[in-house]
From TrEMBL, chain A:
First-listed, main subcellular location of the protein, grouped into a coarse class: membrane
Family: Belongs to the CcmD/CycX/HelD family.
Protein name per UniProt: Heme exporter protein D
InterPro entries in the record: Haem_export_protD_CcmD
Organism this protein belongs to: Pseudovibrio axinellae
Automatic annotation (TrEMBL), chain B:
Protein name as annotated: Heme exporter protein C
Domain Cytochrome c assembly protein: residue ranges: 5-182
Molecular function GO labels: heme binding; heme transmembrane transporter activity
Gene: ccmC
Keyword line: Cell inner membrane, Cell membrane, Cytochrome c-type biogenesis, Membrane, Transmembrane, Transmembrane helix, Transport
Record-stated family: Belongs to the CcmC/CycZ/HelC family.
Primary localization class, coarse: membrane
Length: 76, 259
């Protein structure tokens, strides 16, 4: 669409849509950059051996299952 | 899967992972359709001329600004009544999105007001109450940042948010209660919309696109907030383990008489 068709009020229409684009793009970029920062932070914590309580519990349960002998597993 | 199951953050994150790509596609498609209607398939208004196209951004942004506050208020009820952390997460994630769309509604209203009213701003009841909404959003964001304990912050913010619902009611009925320059309700009103379908269809298309955009951004933001809380919990666990570990080391290293 040719913006000259907007006549004497073109700058107002362009300003409104430009600001909408800036606000939406800004929100998306902010949320995405926040996500990547948090992911890096969590990876750094996990790398240093710190685990979430639920993941530690899951790991313990997994180890218990693995350490159970075949006889115990079969119930004999 | 019941609503109660969804209240579990891990299950919620799984759902977000599955839903988000589809929601992004739907949002982009709806925005494309909305912008097509806004620029190519709608006539200029007989009074407003081409500036009517500003309404296709202004009205959905304003509706979303209020919807976002209602979402925050409902989440606050969830926080206070059921004390569920996911409700806190929802309330916190809504605030910056609501503030952004309130700002956009005020800005687009101002650039529409200049050619139509001859002024960017008037101290009209609708405009002023909307400015109050922006200030409330900024205050709530500041309060979330000011209180370190998320549970305490959620409680304080929930009470303030629920008190602030009165402003949403004032915004909605300001054009009826007071003599304002802002036009009265023309979409959600008794007797149906007073807008011609050639303008109503682009407006509705953009409104649907904005709602989808809000859902997408809200889910993305909630996912971040859940991750932030998990990191905080991990740091607290690490901090609680560290002194215990260091004290046991000191005990082992100390001479027998000191023990």
């Amino acid at each position: 669409m040719d913006f000259s068709e907007f006549g004497r009020h073109a700058e107002y229409v362009v300003a409104a849509y430009s600001m909408a684009a800036v606000v939406v793009a800004g929100l998306i970029l902010w949320i995405r950059s926040d996500k990547s920062r948090l992911e890096k932070e969590m990876q750094a914590l996990e790398a240093s051996g710190i685990r979430r309580r639920s993941s530690r519990r899951a790991a313990t349960e997994k180890n218990q299952v693995n350490s159970t002998s075949p006889d115990e597993k079969s119930g004999t | 899967m019941t609503l109660y199951d969804l209240a579990n953050p891990t299950r919620f994150l799984k759902l977000v992972k599955a839903v988000l790509p589809w929601l992004v596609v739907a949002t982009v498609a709806a925005l494309a359709v909305g912008l097509y209607f806004a620029f190519f398939a709608s006539p200029e208004d007989y009074q407003q001329g081409q500036t009517v196209r500003i309404m296709f951004v202004h009205v959905p942004a304003a509706q979303l600004a209020m919807m976002c506050y209602v979402m925050m208020a409902l989440s606050s009820v969830g926080s206070l009544v059921w004390k569920h952390p996911l409700a806190d997460v929802s309330a916190k994630a809504s605030a910056p999105i609501g503030a952004a769309f309130t700002f956009l509604a005020l800005f687009s209203g101002a650039v529409w007001g200049k050619p139509m009213w001859g002024a960017f701003w008037v101290w009209d009841a609708r405009l002023t109450s909307f400015l109050v909404l922006l200030i409330m959003y900024l205050g709530i964001i500041a309060l979330w940042k000011a209180i370190e304990d998320p549970i305490k912050a959620a409680k304080v913010n929930a009470i303030i948010t629920l008190v602030g619902v009165i402003n949403v009611v004032i915004i909605k009925f300001s054009v009826e209660w007071w003599n304002t320059l802002h036009q009265p309700a023309s979409i959600i009103r008794s007797g149906g919309p007073s807008i011609h379908s050639s303008i109503l269809i682009p407006l509705a298309s953009m409104a649907i696109a904005f709602v989808l955009l809000f859902l997408t951004l809200h889910l993305m933001s909630m996912r971040n907030e859940i991750m932030r809380r998990r990191i905080r919990a991990m740091r607290m666990r690490a901090a609680s383990i560290a002194p215990a570990a260091s004290s046991s080391t000191v005990t082992k290293a100390a001479p027998a008489g000191v023990r």
